[in-house]
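Customer ticket, subject: "Can you confirm the structure for Methionine aminopeptidase?"

Message body: Hello, I'm evaluating your service for our small team and ran a test protein. I'd like someone to confirm that this is what the system normally returns, since I don't have a reference to compare against.
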Amino acid sequence: MINLKTTEEILLMREANQLVGRTLAEVARHIAPGVSTLYLDKIAHDFICDHGATPAFLGYGGFPGSICTSINDRVVHGIPRASDILKEGDVVSVDCGTKLNGFTGDSAYTFAVGEVAPEVVALLRTTREALYKGIEQAFPGNRVGHVSSAVQYHAEKAGYGVVRELVGHGIGRDMHESPEVPNYGRKGTGALLRNGMCICIEPMINMGSKNVVFDNDGWTVRTKDGQYSAHFEHCIAITQGEPQILSSFDYIAEVLGDRDF
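Agent reply: Thanks for trying us out. I re-ran your input and got the following:
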């Protein structure tokens, strides 16, 4: 069942998602060689709590962190650890969720650590572009497949692998609601998009093969071939006949300044 949101509920969801954007920006201030992902987790946890919200990921299905931190070949759901130390040339996907006023925010951004190889920058840019290509298709009357196929086409055109095992999702009072939003598919398939729907679109794109493996920790997903992966996510609401981005990368841009990645 797809839960359509009222105008008032969407405003509350925007507040939760804007806080996610601000949290990701605060984390961005601390991303540097020599920093542990557990330290980044503490930064995010304290920032969320200091702003009157709770970390949506902490304890969700038993997850032990307030953010997911996925380095290099880790696609998603990386557990923050003291032993995971960022180094020059790494990338780290930070996925963050908040619970505020009964509603959930969810967004992700993949950061470069110091200077990264040009081919890695290209992966990050293409994945972020694929996110916006998907958002452009999130109009009432289209179907989820329009979003999915737009993401897939943009990523595969550049020669990258599109992960199949993990998907975007509906969102609202619960973090994961119907419908599922894959990053691959065909136009005209999937759930019908309607005003009042809120979904998270989140391309997970690999530099090499689309294939992934699951770690024994029960959470971490890696690329099977060991190549880098990138992950970007926005939460959107479909209102007044068009997609409205509830989350934000603008706060991150303020921290990064002229530096793109």
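A couple of notes from the result: The CA atoms of residues 28 and 252 lie 7 Å apart. DSSP finds five helices and 15 strands in the chain. Feel free to reply with more questions.
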